[in-house]
Target: Major facilitator superfamily transporter
Amino acid sequence: MELTEKSRKWFIATLLLGTFTMSISQSSLSTAYPTFMKYFDLPASTIAWLTTGFMLIMSVVMPLSPWLMKNFRFKPLYLSLLINFVVGTLIIIWAPNFLIMMIGRLMEGFSVGVLFPSYQSIILEITPTNHRGSVMGTVGLVMGSALAVGPIISGVLLQFFPWEAIFAFFLIVLTIVFLLALKTVISPLKIETTQFDFISVFMSLGIIGLLYFINEISHMTASSYWNWGILAVSLILLVLFVRRQLRMPQPLLRLDILSITNFDLGVLLTSLSYMSLITVTIIMPLYYQQILGLTPLWSGLALVPAAAILSWLNRRSGRLADRIGFKLVIMVGFGLFIVGWAGLLLLSGFKNIWIAILCSIIIESGNAFAMMPATTLGANSLTNDLIPHGSSIIATIRQILGSTAIVIATVVLGDRNFNGVFFTFLILEIIAIFLVFKIKDTKKVAANA
Model:
């Protein structure tokens, strides 16, 4: 089916609205932890599983996305994911206890895990190559702003309503998305029935074990042998998973594409960019509260300027990448990361909120010029049939390294060692900018062809 320009825009808008709402659900609950602790009479470590469990199930289903897209038409798949998320949300709202609430939360995580790689693959598929930068800039706007906006929305709702209002918000928006999807979403990919590889799926459970270990590092003691056992088993499963994917004629996930020039760099650079973004959105509210003495509400609102600038820049950086090439744009992005982290490190002694906000703006501006341009760079190096595999690989590795970034920041932070965090991520992005120089400039290649 041929898409007109108008129908293509409606299609993309519907996908992005659904993804934005689901993305908010990933980051919004941290604000509500004290409320949940009081309501269920449980400690923070247990309540944190609302986010940790969501993240684990989300990560393990991401590699299934290419197989699902190849074997099922996209429209029914998308509608099914929306329905599953809505049912999970209803279970959460009506949950009589925390265990039932977790079941609903895992259902939400499943939908998000399948959707994140799928919607990027579809958008790349229906967008001409020379316009992908600007369109993926909009995708970056949705991802970046949702990460920052989630805690703000939940914080505002909790000021006036009980915690169920957060999930009622998801319910209302996704019901609207479902009705829009019935009219605007199509199935642009050809269906090719392939056998489902249960062995690969079992081996991919190593991702859950690895992420669990990463998230437990900051709580581990010398006697935490159980966690080390989980790590060992998980690494064995992942090694077997990689080996199986490289040997199978029709693998669950085409890991061999990591050897393709620019795709490998795209995966690394988008992940390194995401590591800075997720760290700044978690560390800076703590900095505002513990060092500058702001209230939780104002520490959340202090994130708004950086989130707004990030949203404003995303589409513009994408258009710029379409015009001048991705290498220069990505270089600007990592340059901004370095300036922002260096500013926080060198100027934190002033304990000035405006300096902190300005440095946060610079860091999140760097993400606008780095993350989605790097993702698009990677996608453009693949043929269309490999894009679903590429999107799944990028999303999975980005999620693992994002979780790693949180752990690194938490461990380094210790007892308010914010300068240690700033220095660590400054070094990380200095290393990243050397990778940018290895990008093969596609604009020059096209000009010489």
